[in-house]
Write a structure and sequence with these properties.
Elements (H helix, E strand, L loop, with lengths): L5 E6 L8 H11 L4 E4 L29 H6 L4 E4 L14 H8 L6 H14 L5 E5 L8 H13 L5 E4 L5 E2 L1
Parallel strand pairs: 1-4, 1-5, 2-3, 2-4
Antiparallel strand pairs: 5-6
Helix pairs in contact: 4-5
Length: 171
C-alpha cells in the first residue's frame, strides 16, 4: 500500500526572534521538507533599516542573496511564495473573507488559483511540502484553513495534514 501524501504546516511566531531562523530550518530538515510554501500575504519586512528593532530578518523575503530563500536553499529546501494563499483580512480571527472566497463556486478568487498551484507542488514526485505562516497556533491560523481546503478539493480527503511545531500531530 502506498503511503499517504502529506502536507505539513509551520508557524514561526512562538519561536523567539533570536533563534527563529535556526529552529525553523532545523524543524523542516528534521521532517524531510523539500519545499516551503509561504502563505503570508506580506512576507517582507515593512522596515528595511537593519539597525532598528524590527527590520529585515532571515525569515523575510529579500532581494538578492539574503532572506528566507537563501536561508532555506543552504539546507536544500526550495522556497516559494504563493501570495494568492495569503489571508485577505488578517484582522478577522474567524477568517470570514477567506472562507467566503473558498466557498464561492465561481472559482474566480485568487485563492482558487493559489490552491491549484499548491496542489501541483504537493503532487510532484518526492515532494514534501510545508505551508509557512507567522501564527504560532495552527488551529487559529489561515494556513490550516488553506490546508483543509486543498485536501477537500484536490485530494478527496486523503491528504495527511501535519504540524511541524506540534511534533507531527495531525490537524
Amino acid at each position: 500500500m502506498a503511503s499517504r501524501r502529506q502536507l505539513w504546516t509551520v508557524g514561526y511566531g512562538a519561536w523567539a526572534a533570536s533563534v527563529r531562523a535556526d529552529r525553523l530550518v532545523k524543524a523542516l530538515v528534521d521532517r524531510g521538507i523539500t519545499r516551503l510554501v509561504d502563505v503570508r500575504i506580506a512576507p517582507c519586512s515593512s522596515d528595511l533599516d537593519p539597525k532598528r528593532t524590527y527590520g529585515p530578518r532571515p525569515w523575510h523575503l529579500h532581494a538578492g542573496e539574503a532572506g528566507i530563500n537563501t536561508l532555506l536553499g543552504q539546507s536544500g529546501i526550495a522556497y516559494e511564495w504563493i501570495v494568492e494563499l495569503g489571508n485577505p483580512q488578517r484582522q478577522d480571527p474567524s477568517m470570514a473573507v477567506l472562507r467566503a472566497h473558498l466557498a464561492d463556486p465561481s472559482g474566480d478568487w485568487p485563492v482558487h488559483r493559489g490552491l491549484a498551484r499548491l496542489a501541483d507542488r504537493v503532487r510532484q514526485p518526492g515532494a514534501v511540502v510545508c505551508l509557512l505562516c507567522a501564527c504560532a497556533e495552527a488551529n487559529r491560523c489561515h494556513r490550516t484553513v488553506i490546508a483543509h481546503a486543498l485536501n477537500d478539493r484536490s485530494f478527496s480527503g486523503e491528504l495527511e495534514i501535519l504540524d511541524v511545531r506540534a511534533g507531527g500531530r495531525r490537524h
